[in-house]
Design a protein that fits this description.
single chain; 131 residues; 0% strand; mainly alpha
């Protein structure tokens, strides 16, 4: 398999992408930590949204795995795809119960992809915003 050469990413774009990528990673790690270290609080939150209390640990593991895959450069695209699915579920949950903050997971999804776009030349080659 040959890989087409891609233009290098500028230092400014790379660091902006890294900083933007750190935001959802830190938020997901914080969410995962809440499920591991404060399970009562996490369980109350999950039950509020209509989910069974028994899935809290599984959601925490999912958050952790998605965040780690996204943070590792070799698996960042897979991580971004998985985070998009997870955040889509969060958006649907907020919309289902009529909360006005449904746009927060949407914004996080945009930040996930913008951060990856700025730091990964392969994604820039796949999705050129300029011709």
């Amino acid at each position: 398999m040959t890989v087409a050469p891609t233009a290098p990413v500028s230092k400014g774009a790379l660091w902006t992408g890294r900083i933007l990528s750190a935001i959802p990673v830190l938020m997901m790690l914080m969410g995962a930590a809440m499920t591991f270290f404060k399970p009562e609080m996490a369980t109350e939150g999950i039950v509020k949204y209509g989910y069974p209390a028994g899935i809290v640990l599984y959601l925490g593991i999912t958050e952790l795995v998605c965040a780690l895959l996204y943070a590792i450069p070799r698996t960042s695209v897979l991580g971004a795809i998985l985070l998009t699915g997870y955040l889509g579920g969060a958006t649907a949950t907020h919309v289902r119960i009529g909360e006005a903050n449904w746009f927060v997971p949407v914004l996080f999804g945009v930040v996930v992809w913008l951060g990856l776009y700025l730091r990964d030349s392969r994604l820039r080659a796949l999705v050129p915003l300029r011709s």
